[in-house]
Amino acid sequence: MNGFAGNRVELRHLRVFEAVARLKSFTLAADELSITQPALSRTIQQLEDALGVALLDRSSRHVETTKAGQRFLDHVERVLAELERGFAAVRRQASLRLGFSWLLPDPWAQDTVARFERATGTRVSLVRTDDALTGVQQGKVDIAVVRGHVASTAVQVVHLFDESRVAVCSVHSRLAGRAELDWAEVPRWPLVVNTASGTTGPWSWPEGEGPQTVVETTNFDEWLESVAADRGIGVIPDVAMRRNIHPGVKFIALRNAPASPVGLAYLPRPRNAVLRRFVEAAVESAARPMRPADAKVPNH
Predict the structure, then answer these.
(1) Tens of pLDDT, residues 79-98
(2) Domain hosting residue 10, numbered range
(3) Collapsing DSSP states into helix, strand and coil, what is residue 203?
């Protein structure tokens, strides 16, 4: 290949030629590469023009490589194989930063990370941040687990599933002896709210129907310690009750509470293949049935 031809030949030309030569069909190659047959034919013609030689014999029922085409195919296959080894080596060194504010949903998080890492060789780095949505917008994480309804139009959000809610109170609270609580009763008690990433707050009720007293905190740890100190009660997705998060709190079943949506937020980057693969793995895991044991409310 002379210098002139080399400047005109791109990787797409090699991939198209290899697919046609291997499958012996323009139609099958176009389907495999997800391009139109006219576009594939033009690409082959561009490659042959650049090299100044016919690579494929189109005269027979099946497309065959010419003598020159077969010699060129041997080199193309080695080049593509070496490139794939290079891509794999880079992917093993790459990582995707998954942001979260508190308590990743289970078993979804574990299933998603394992499926994605096995399929891609890319490592997932878990990054805890008090405001995961801001972390995405500032580029501190690549993608983040978000709970509740996201109003920002700066990010793209994929809904995964809804979590059930439970009430949380101090073991010293007058509510600690209750087995269950109705959603309508929650506003009668001081409500501890995580203003940065909480899923339940005054905004969860119509105007004028929310709690009279609100204790504001700015992260999950402050929220948890405030509930344990009996400054008020909290409402949280039921993932918390499976984690034994604090010896000073008790979980109470909550009737008639609206579900809490869980999604993934990320900046729209349509060419980011790694990010797209992670979202696909996340959606697959979300579609799997929840294990029966996950739905139980333990006595705490």
Answers:
(1) 999 888 877 776 666 689 99
(2) 5-87
(3) helix
